[in-house]
Design brief:
It contains five helices and seven strands; from the N terminus they run βββααααββββα. It is of the alpha+beta class. The longest helix has 17 residues, at 108-124. It is globular.
């Protein structure tokens, strides 16, 4: 290409659009550690205590219109930053997907859940994706799907989740509300499976 175009070779890719790229003999590792630390710094949580999970077990958020509203600008900014972080952090997909639902009118309980997610980020900033070099010529495609029946107390819709791996490396993932209200957990699982197959 250099014979046809004016270009310079900068060597192996190490940093691109906030993603740190580490290329080694066993494959490629992607993470957004520096970006995660910047999110925490901007939120004033760079020295917070880390927690083990991005969301409390069994937490069931709702519109909570009886609670006091919090600053929507900061909430939206933090959610927007976390959304970009999802490129290398599928472990945050569900939590961020739930928090996004309340961007138009965030309340105190939403702010507490956001802080929990940011505290989890403090202890897991180094996590990312690892794409290992395959020794076999055939990589196996494997996918998992799940749903949580009647998850949202405001509209009764369930949440669909799926993740697909090529070999040992995740290649696509999703966590989103289902389009319609499922009448049974079996129906919610069927909708999740259909979405994953598509």
């Amino acid at each position: 290409m250099a014979s046809k175009f004016d270009m310079s070779d900068l060597g192996k890719l190490t940093y691109y659009l906030g993603m740190e790229v580490c290329q080694h003999e066993y494959g490629i590792t992607l993470n957004q550690r520096r970006y995660a630390m910047k999110i925490l710094e901007d939120a004033g949580l760079s020295k917070c205590n880390p927690v083990q999970t991005p969301m409390e077990l069994g937490l069931n958020l709702s519109k909570a219109e009886e609670e006091t509203e919090i600053d929507a600008t900061n909430y939206k900014r933090n959610i927007g930053c976390l959304r970009y972080l999802l490129h290398t952090r599928p472990d945050l997909s569900f939590t961020v997907g739930v928090l996004i639902r309340y961007m138009h009118s965030p309340r105190e309980s939403h702010g507490v859940a956001l802080k929990q997610c940011l505290r989890y980020l403090q202890g897991s900033a180094n996590l990312g994706l690892s794409f290992e070099r395959s020794t076999s010529k055939i990589s196996r495609l494997m996918g998992y799907s799940d749903s949580s029946y009647n998850m949202d107390p405001d509209d009764g819709r369930s949440t669909t989740r799926h993740i697909f791996y090529l070999g040992k490396s995740p290649i696509t993932w999703c966590s989103q509300k289902q389009d319609t209200v499922a009448l049974a957990s079996c129906e919610a699982e069927f909708m999740a499976g259909t979405e994953a197959v598509r």
